[in-house]
Amino acid sequence: MHANRPSRLHGITTFILASLLAIWPLSCVNKAECAEKPAVPNVVLILTDDQGYGDLSCHGNPVLKTPNLDRLHSQSVRLTNFHVDPTCSPTRSALLTGRYSSRTGVWHTIMGRSILRKDETTLANVFAENGYRTGLFGKWHLGDNYPYRAQDRGFQEVLTHGGGGVGQTPDFWGNSYFDNTLLHNGQRVKVPGYCTDVFFAAALKFIEAGKERPFFCYIPTNAPHAPYNVDEKYSKPYRDRGVPEQRARFYGMIANIDDNVGRLLARLKDLKLDDNTIVVFMTDNGTAAGHTEKTGDGFNAGMRSTKGSEYDGGHRVPCFIRWPGQLKPKDEPFLSAHIDLLPTLISMCKLKSPGKEALDGLDLSSVLRLGKADNQPGRVLFVHSQRIEHPEKWRKCAVLTDRWRLVNGKELYDMTKDPGQKQDIAAQHADVVADLRRRYDDWWTSISKRFDEYCEIAIGAEKENPVQLCCHDWHGEIAPSAQESIRQAVKANGFWALEVARAGKYEITLRQQPAEAKFPIQGTSARLKIGDVERTQAIPKDAVSVTFPLELKPGKTRLQTWFADQTGDLRGAYYVEVKFVP
C-alpha cells in the first residue's frame, strides 16, 4: 500500500510529461488541416469510477472539498436527474453506444460479460469517422483482447490498464496506482507517477499535440475505485478531521481528481480551446465509500443505498455539461441517462450518425438549451444490476419516470414526495405498478434476444498474436478479478469463449501467475480441453509454465484448463497464452 508515501506528485509532473512524449509523439498528419481552427467543437469526456452524487462539495458534502469541480458545476448545465447502471462496465458500454448495456452484451464486470460485442458502434467510432482525433486515457473495462480493445473500437491513442482496475488480474502484475506498467496502444510501457496524474497528463499531451484538429478525449479514471491508494497529502486533511481511514483515502483520491480537472480546464483556456470545447463530467455509478448504508455514516445527498443498488443511490449520478457561449449554466431536472450522451454529442458536434443500430438514448440538445425534449412526454428509463453469468428477469431492477420508481417489480416510490425511497406505496397505486411492470416486460423482451451469445476472444488473429487470456474472463461460477486471489490460489475454474481465426499450429501455455511473476506452478499435472481436443501432461518440478502444441481448426470454441496437485485438488490455470505458430 502507498497511501502514506511522501508527497511527490507535482514535483515530477514535468518528468511525466516528458516520459509520455517519449512514448508517442503526435502531430498533424495534414498541414492544411492544421492551418485553421476547427469549425466543430472538441469534446472532453471525464468519467470517474465509484464517485457518487454526494461525493462533491457542490452537492452539499460537508467534508469533501472539490473546488475545481464546483467551478465546472457552476459553468455547466447540471443534469440533476441523470442515471447510469449501478456498476462499471455496464455504464461504460451504454455511455459509448447509446444503447442499454445488456443489449450490447454487458451486464457484469467479469465472467466475459464485461466485453462489448464487436458489432456495436462506439462514440469513438463515430468521432473518428467524422475526422476527429480520438484518445482514451484511463480505464476501458470492455474487453482486454482483440477485437474488443479500445484501439479496436475507434480510439486512435490509448493509454490504459488491464481489466476493471489497477491491480486486477488482467493488469500488469504488481501494479499499485504508483509508477505502473500500462498499455499504450497494446504495448507495455513503464510510466512514473500516480495513475490519475499520469492519465490526465497523457490526455493533455494528446490535446496539445494536435489541437488544430477537432478531438474527442475520453478520460475514464480508475480512481476513486478501490484499493484506496493515494498520496498522503490528499488523504491526511480528511483523516485529521476524523474521517474513517478508508473514506479519508477515498476522499483524497477525489481531491486529486479535482486538482487534475483544474489543471485540464486551465490548460484548455491557455490554449484558447475552452470556448470551442464541450466538457462533460460524470461518474459511473453510486458511491462506493462515501456513505455507509447500515449506519448512515458519510454523505449520500439524501439518497437510498450505494454502488450496485437498484435504488437511486446506486445509479443517480452527477452529470455536468459545459460549452461556453452555447449552453447557459442551469440545473436541468429532465429524466436523462448515460444512453443519451452519444445522440446528444452527435447532434451538438454535427456528426454524421452511423445509423447501424437503433439507439435507446435521446438527443438532449434541446433539453440542454431550452429545457425540453421534442416528442418525449412521460419518459421511462430502466436500470438493473445483474452481475451473474445469465441475466434473470426482475433481478435488482428499477423502472424510472419523473415521478415514480418501481423497484424489483414490487416496491413503488413517489420521488416527488419521497426522494429517499423510504415508503413503499405499491398497495395504494396498483394501476401504476401494473403499467410500469408492463413497460418493463416490453423492455426485457427487447434487450434479451441475444442473452445466450458469448463474446468470443479471437486467437490466431494477425492483430493480436500471441493472446494473453486471464481468469477475469472465465465463464463459470467464479472469475477471480483481484491479484490477491491469485496469490492465495483460490480454487476456481471456468472456460474461455474463443474464436480460432486461422487453422494451423498453436502453442497453448498455462501459468498459475503471469509470466512476469516467474511463479512455480503448485501442481503435478496439467490438463486442457479445447473443443473436442483434450491433452494432459506432467508438470516438471519448479516449472513456471506448461506448453501444449496443438493443431486447431477455425471457428468458435471453448477452452478450459486444470492444474491438479498430489491431493487431487483442482483449479484452473489463471493465465493462458495462446500463440499461432506460422
Structural account:
A hairpin with a 5-residue loop joins strand 26 (555-564) and strand 27 (570-571). Residues 1-18 and 21-37 have low confidence and may be disordered. The protein has 13 helices and 28 strands. The chain has two domains: 10-370, Alkaline Phosphatase, subunit A (3-Layer(aba) Sandwich); 457-581, Galactose-binding domain-like (Jelly Rolls). The longest helix has 26 residues, at 245-270. 23% of the residues lie in helices and 23% in strands. Helix 1 packs across helix 6, helix 6 packs parallel to helix 8 (245-270) and helix 7 crosses helix 8.
In brief:
With 582 residues, the protein is of the alpha+beta class. The protein has 13 helices and 28 strands.
List the helices and strands and how they pair.
Elements: H1 13-23, H2 31-34, E1 42-48, H3 67-74, E2 77-79, E3 82-83, H4 88-97, H5 123-129, E4 133-138, E5 157-160, E6 181-184, E7 187-190, H6 195-209, E8 215-220, H7 232-240, H8 245-270, E9 277-283, E10 291-292, E11 297-298, H9 312-315, E12 319-322, E13 330-332, E14 336-337, H10 341-348, H11 365-370, E15 381-384, E16 397-400, E17 404-407, E18 411-414, H12 430-447, E19 457-459, E20 467-470, H13 483-487, E21 495-500, E22 504-511, E23 525-530, E24 533-538, E25 546-552, E26 555-564, E27 570-571, E28 575-581
Parallel strand pairs: 1-8, 1-9, 2-13, 3-14, 4-5, 4-8, 19-21
Antiparallel strand pairs: 2-12, 5-6, 6-7, 9-12, 10-11, 15-16, 16-17, 17-18, 20-28, 21-26, 22-25, 22-28, 23-24, 23-26, 26-27
